[in-house]
Amino acid sequence: MKIKTYVADNVQEAFYKVKTELGKDAVILQTKQIKKGGFFGFFGKRMVEVIAANDITLKTDIPKKTFLNNSNNFASITKKQIEANNYGSIDEIKNEMEEVKSLLNKMYSEQKKDNSVLNINIPEPFIEHWERMHEMQVDNEVIHKIIENTQRNLSETEITDKTKVLNALKNEIALLIDKVEPIRLLDKKNIVAFIGPTGVGKTTTIAKLAAHFALYKEKKVAMITADTFRVGAIEQLKLYGDILEIPVYVVHSNTEIENILKNLVDYELLLIDTMGFSPNNRIQIKKVKSLLDYLKPNDIFMVISAATKNTDMIEILNNYRELNYKKIIVTKLDETKSYGTILNAINITGCKLSYLTTGQNVPDDIEVASGDKIADMILGAE
After folding, report:
1. Burial of 6 (0-12, 13-18, 19+ CB in 10 A)
2. Dist CA 314 CA 150 (whole Å)
3. Strand 327-331 to strand 352-357: parallel, antiparallel, or no bridges (unpaired)?
4. Most CB atoms closer than 10 Å: which of 110, 158, 215, 328?
5. Segment holding 30, helix H or strand E
6. What is the pTM of this model?
7. Would you say 192 and 272 are in contact if contact means Cβ atoms under 8 Å apart?
8. What is the pLDDT of residues 269-312, one digit of tens each?
9. Which among 263, 178, 260, 175 has a CA at the least distance from the CA of 226?
């Protein structure tokens, strides 16, 4: 068995190195973020370290009856049995087991070292805030970026002032969120599409926005749904349409789009509800892309749930990239107490944040995102 460590700027580059050198059957044993260079753990370049192995020859198809018929299973397998079944020599198996054991011990020791170094490198006034952001499930890369930038902007005297440190951290979070971008109506017809996986609340979010622009902004609004897959999706949107007195059109095929748009030529805002599906379903992603190509929307909003696990959210955002979304709506903030998803999504995509939703009530429970409010949610009010 061959074990190697690779360091690269990102995971994709590291995996490419692994596959190129160790082959397509290589096994990834560990992936983690590291820092290279810098000063006492700060200002260093963030990189990815991957430990991989190949030529693992241990077999798992030893006949079941060998184990079932003997009380001392491993002892009952003789050297002849192993070699006769092409399992390799006992010495080879022992060597590979020792290699794995040694690697696991090394990984455990490095992890303990990383944790201790992390606590040492973070200045005392920032430790409680680091812990708070970690509890909020903010990605470590984002946490360090916030702390590094904050420390750089404070004097030695200011760093000893807890209030100034907290306010500076909140300001840094607000800067990370940058300028939010809700729907901005243009003089021409505005076509706004909403994409995202099943269950994130796209339909309810569209109804809230339709109500806002129709009731409060007095705009001519129509809703179009292409979500013919989810049971009850069309009926749900039509119900909102009846209540709000807003027309709802259903798209069963892309060929219908031209006629629908002609019927809505006098409307100022068209809100498009696309079908939801697994982010791993490449066929459905292509279908949505085809729909968007026909519609040619002015804006595409990616809708994600704040209650989504961070690893799942990363996969969702990456798999939907080909749909060219530029803005993000975060829903279901009322269903979680961990708000790190918001910062992680912005960091991963570089997109602008638009709206936050906090419940099912239409037209309420939606607001334009605020960097200051999100900073308070993550670090706590003073």
Report:
1. buried
2. 26
3. parallel
4. 328
5. strand 27-36
6. 0.68
7. yes
8. 999 999 887 778 888 889 999 999 999 999 999 999 999 988 89
9. 260
